């Protein structure tokens, strides 16, 4: 089976879970100065779909009067923005967003940021690579900060079938002669993290291994993360999309295992303080439900306070 077929199979079984927003709840904010908030959508979504980020934008504007909400559009059209979640390398996306916010006066006094699914790790890359203007609070909803190793909804497949597809994606992500163009073509391959072959992952990963300082230490990344006032990570307790779900809290499988999962503080990344996370104020939030499935009330209670 060739690499292109691997990619198509991977995409075909990747279920999309838009945010499930209830229609009740209200609140008011009062603050002399409120900084803008930037939203970055996940895979299979776009900046402005009314049933997903469009509704989030409206909700924030209702709860924080006077706030400016910018839902990022990658590319020049909604179609291009949608496709970016699959086919535009994160490095290119982060660079485009950095150029945008650096040239917008409304961000001069800083901004807050909310990332949905893979938008969470993309915004973290933005904080690390683009320190001006300053990101104040980074809120990651279901982001995969240590990557993924497993197929979406894998429990619905037999173990043998699941392992077969996992091996195929490993080939697509890391094969010596194909990894560059595959990762340039398929965004999800850039944060595929194989704990059974950690050395191969570190060498072959074109995005995640870099922003996690897993090859060499980039001191700018460390310093820029420390500028955050708060790094908020939300884990969805019944998530069938992100495997392991602990990646949403920066945890991951133990090296050499696809069964044992380590919390952040027991990982090599934290023990060696490769990103300076020991000095970053972090909040770990939980949400019942599947990937990005939350209610309006939950969002108001748990996320809105960081924007006021």
TrEMBL record:
SUPFAM superfamilies on file: alpha/beta-Hydrolases
Annotated transmembrane regions: none
GO terms of biological process kind: receptor-mediated endocytosis
Known catalytic reactions: S-hexadecanoyl-L-cysteinyl-[protein] + H2O = L-cysteinyl-[protein] + hexadecanoate + H(+)
EC number: 3.1.2.22
Enzyme class: hydrolase
Any GO molecular function: palmitoyl-(protein) hydrolase activity
Gene Ontology CC annotations of this record: lysosome
Keyword Transcription regulation belongs to the record: no
Pfam families per the UniProt record, alphabetical: Palm_thioest
Keywords attached to this entry: Disulfide bond, Glycoprotein, Hydrolase, Signal
Keyword Hydrolase included in the entry's annotation: yes
Family the UniProt entry places it in: Belongs to the palmitoyl-protein thioesterase family.
Name of this protein: Palmitoyl-protein thioesterase 1
């Amino acid at each position: 089976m060739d690499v292109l077929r691997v990619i198509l199979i991977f995409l075909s079984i990747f279920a999309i879970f838009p945010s499930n927003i209830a229609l009740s709840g209200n609140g008011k904010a009062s603050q002399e100065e409120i900084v803008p908030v930037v939203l970055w959508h996940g895979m299979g979504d776009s900046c402005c779909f009314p049933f997903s980020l469009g509704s989030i934008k409206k909700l924030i504007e209702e709860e924080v009067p006077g706030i400016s909400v910018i839902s990022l559009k990658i590319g020049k059209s909604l179609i291009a923005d949608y496709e970016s979640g699959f086919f535009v390398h994160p490095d290119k996306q982060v660079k485009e967003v950095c150029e945008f916010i650096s040239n917008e006066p409304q961000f001069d006094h800083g901004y807050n940021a909310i990332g949905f699914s893979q938008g969470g790790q993309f915004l973290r890359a933005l904080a690390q690579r683009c320190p001006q203007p300053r990101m104040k609070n980074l809120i990651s909803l279901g982001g995969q900060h240590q990557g993924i190793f497993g197929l979406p909804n894998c429990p619905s497949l037999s173990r043998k079938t699941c392992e077969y597809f996992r091996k195929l994606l490993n080939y697509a992500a890391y094969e010596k002669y194909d990894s560059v163009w595959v990762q340039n073509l398929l965004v999800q391959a850039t944060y595929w993290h194989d704990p059974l072959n950690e050395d191969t992952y570190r060498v072959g990963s074109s995005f995640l291994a870099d922003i996690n300082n897993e090859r060499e230490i980039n001191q700018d990344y460390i310093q820029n993360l420390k500028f955050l006032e708060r790094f908020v990570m939300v884990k969805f307790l019944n998530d069938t999309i992100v495997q392991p779900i602990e990646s949403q809290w920066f945890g991951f499988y133990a090296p050499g295992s696809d069964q044992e999962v380590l919390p952040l503080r027991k990982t090599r990344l934290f023990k060696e303080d490769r990103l300076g996370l020991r000095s970053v104020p972090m909040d770990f939030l939980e949400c019942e439900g599947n990937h990005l499935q939350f209610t309006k009330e939950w969002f108001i209670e748990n996320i809105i306070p960081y924007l006021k």
